[in-house]
Amino acid sequence: MSAWLDAYDRAVAEVALFAAVVILLGGIDDVVMDLVWWRVRDPEPDRLKLPPAPPLPLAIFVPAWDEQAVIGPMLRATLARFDHPDYRLYVGCYPNDPGTIRAARSVAAEDARVRVVVGRQDGPTTKADCLNRLWHALLAEEDGTGRRAAAVVLHDAEDVVDPAALRVFDDQLRDAALVQLPVVPLIDPRRRLVSGHYADEFAEAHRRDLVVRSALGAAVPLAGVGCAIRRDALDRLAAESGAPFEPHSLTEDYELGLRVAALGLPARFVRVRDGARGRLIATRAYFPDTVDTAVRQKARWVTGIALIGWDRTGWGARRHGAEYWMRMRDRRGLLAVLALLAAYLSLVGWGLSTLAHVVTHSDAAPYGIGLRVLLALNGGLLCWRLLARVLHTAAEHDACEGCWAVPRALVSNYIAMLAARRALGRYLKSFAGPPPRWDKTIHRFPDQLPTIP
């Protein structure tokens, strides 16, 4: 019995060592990111001040599949909130989705700025395929009217847009080919743990990570909402393959940012404030608020970015150290999940080992100094990471939500592990399975819109 227990202890120690080394490397990576952010971050302007200039004509693309519950309120709110004199809304629908078509057309009948584009192919295909249909509809309308859009703005059917967003795009697109504004998830207080963990992650990503990427000149991956792409960039992408969006991609927004960077065109992540109380100009929306829907969404992200996306985009053609670093961060998710799983297994293993030694009245062999040092370092890095997350969430939301970020870190880890398993399964099926399809979740639109200070 003693020999078996000793072997078990050694196995637990090996699993713990693997987890500790990987987590240490990830923790150091995050600390470096924090320090670079502190160095490159710029003070956010308290008030939006734009120079007078003729407004750019803009086209707003809203792909919609099975969105009859939200597309009507979203379009009406968008039309009421946007402060810009020259834009058109293009809503992409499928012929086998009559509810969404009916809801979108009811708004189009009220406002001439809305165009409803119904494709020929039944849905769902992919979001990128729907966006390409909107692109071709835009070209056809331009041929007929002579009005040429200077840029395309992307939004989803559940988005709450910021009134000043188009004015920011109008200003920034004059010397940048791609502009991304922050995304701020809305938190449902009834399901604060799941819906709120998106707020924590986006607070770090859109207050720190994208700021660093933009400052270092690395590609700025799009979030798919609250972003604008200049017309010349889209024309060049379309010239390569017939349409600007990759129809077989699960994360066409992420890839679009990389492809624009590969053209050598400038991209920018912009954080600016407006209003009497300095409202952050950002896109706000409810994200999935159940474990199942969150896992489905994040599995699509992992599959599209860390697996299939890696196959599709590689490490980029440019020899750019910051670019390699950022793509490594994008793709380390599966390894990080494996390390988390190993860490949790080693905790359970230690508990069972302690119980076994109590029952057998034996002493466990002491763990080596190297493992103890690693665990101590990881404990310090964990405290650093939680503090950073609390501060970013508190800055983006409030102090109460910042405190909630600590227990939500466990929820985030749990969802990440389930999503990684689902993503790996989808990736393996993609080698012999059918083309990818739009694996979307049910969306909701706020009953009461966020106030505009």
Structural notes for this entry:
Helices cover 57% and strands 10% of the residues. It is built from 13 helices and eleven strands. It has helices at residues 2-40, 71-81, 98-108, 127-145, 165-172, 192-216, 231-241, 252-262, 291-313, 321-331, 333-360, 369-396, 399-429, and strands spanning 58-63, 87-93, 114-118, 151-154, 178-180, 183-186, 227-230, 267-269, 273-274, 279-280, 283-286. The strands form three sheets. It has a seven-stranded mixed β-sheet with strand order 3-2-1-4-7-5-8, with helices on both faces. Strand 1, helix 2 (71-81) and strand 2 form a beta-alpha-beta unit. The chain starts with a helix and ends in a 24-residue tail after the last helix.
Helical amount = 55-70%
Low-confidence stretches: none
From the helix content, strand content and strand pairing, which structural class follows? alpha/beta
Report Rg.
Answer: 24 Å
- Give the total of beta strands: 11
Question: What's the number of helices?
Answer: 13
Portion in strands = 5-15%
Q: Per the principal axes of the C-alpha atoms, what is the gross shape?
A: elongated
Which strands sit side by side, in order, in the main sheet?
3-2-1-4-7-5-8
Order of helices and strands: HEHEHEHEHEEHEHHEEEEHHHHH
Distance between the termini: 70 Å
Q: What integer is the average pLDDT?
A: 90
